[in-house]
Amino acid sequence: MCITLLVASLVCLTLPVFTGRWLMSFWTGNSKIHELYTAACGLYVCWLSIRGVTVLLAWMPQGRTVIVRKVQEWTLMILKTLVVALLVAGVIPLLLGLLFELVIVAPLRVPLDQTPLFYPWQDWALGVLHAKIIAAITLMGPQWWLKTVIEQ
Predict the structure, then answer these.
(1) Which residues contact 16 (CB under 8 A, 6 or more apart)?
(2) Could you say which of 39, 104, 110, 114 is the most buried, measured as most Cβ atoms within 10 Å of its Cβ?
(3) What does the pLDDT look like over 112-127, one tens digit per residue?
(4) Measured distance between the N- and C-terminal CA atoms of the chain, rounded to whole angstroms
């Protein structure tokens, strides 16, 4: 019983932290990261891999063609989701922030004989703020097609 408890605790505690450290080293290099973040990242990756294996084992009796078709369907759905997420979370806020910067901030801040400098990260953050404000005003307003679409 002690050996089983020792092995189970080593696998459940050491493997996620080791996996999280290994993955975080790719993103951040040699910088120090809190152990809670590495453990959370490792737990998520371990859970995701276990879930993938169990789904694959559940699909095995259906045959190889069914598995390939489902993988193709899921890949297409993930790609579509990534494109929409990039547009909604990246491009639209960047364009909103750039519009606000060009129409309101730059004419007030930069003299006519100078060229303004644009910082995309600041414009994106400003656009995210404006997108949240626009969505909140739309959701608080009267019932119309845009409110229905955003609520859905």
Answers:
(1) 39, 42, 43, 45, 46
(2) 39
(3) 899 989 899 999 999 9
(4) 53
Residue the block writes with tokens 């929409």: 84
Q: Which residues of 132-145 are buried (b: 16+ CB within 10 A; e: fewer)?
A: eeeeeeeeeeeeee
Q: Cβ distance 101 to 93 under 8 Å?
A: no
pLDDT on residue 50: 93
Residue owning tokens 């960047």: 94
What is d(CA 46, CA 12) in angstroms, rounded to the nearest whole number? Answer: 10
CA distances from 151 to 39, 50, 61, 64 (A): 36, 35, 41, 40
Q: pTM of the full predicted structure? A: 0.61
